């Protein structure tokens, strides 16, 4: 697992793919609206009030398969459905 203060465009794209896959499989939003808003804002270079947030990335090879977001003592986590239950 790696940690980053910001995401590259490629990382963001992969994270959003994980979020979409999990949301479709689970039938509910994988992340809160606030976290999704922050992700989309970071794509525009708009750090906003979530400065100091941390992105956690779990990868299988070069593919991001899990994402965690920590800010102000709150965290969210999503794992791609095809990579769940693997220990």
Q: The biggest beta sheet, please?
A: 4 strands, antiparallel
Shape field = globular
Question: Approximately how much beta-strand content do the residues carry?
Answer: 25-35%
The total strand number stands at 4
Rounded radius of gyration (Å): 12 Å
CA-to-CA gap between the ends? 14 Å
Number of helices, where a helix is a run of at least 4 consecutive DSSP H or I residues: 2
| Element string (H = helix, E = strand) | EHHEEE
Q: Which strand order spans the largest sheet, edge to edge or round the barrel? A: 1-2-3-4
Quick description:
This protein is α+β, with helices and mostly antiparallel strands and 87 residues long. The chain is built from two helices and four strands, in the order βααβββ.
Notes on the protein architecture:
The protein has 2 helices and 4 strands. The chain has helices at 9-26, 33-43; strands at 2-4, 54-60, 63-71, 74-79.
Helix/strand layout:
Layout: E1 2-4, H1 9-26, H2 33-43, E2 54-60, E3 63-71, E4 74-79
Antiparallel strand pairs: 1-2, 2-3, 3-4
Descriptors:
four-stranded antiparallel sheet; alpha+beta; 2 helices; 87 residues
């Amino acid at each position: 697992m790696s940690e980053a203060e910001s995401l590259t465009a490629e990382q963001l794209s992969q994270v959003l793919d994980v979020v979409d896959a999990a949301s479709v499989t689970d039938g509910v939003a994988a992340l809160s609206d606030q976290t999704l808003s922050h992700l989309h804002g970071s794509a525009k270079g708009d750090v906003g009030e979530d400065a100091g947030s941390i992105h956690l990335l779990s990868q299988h090879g070069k593919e991001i398969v899990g994402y965690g977001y920590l800010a102000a003592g709150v965290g969210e986590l999503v794992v791609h459905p095809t990579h769940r239950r693997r220990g």
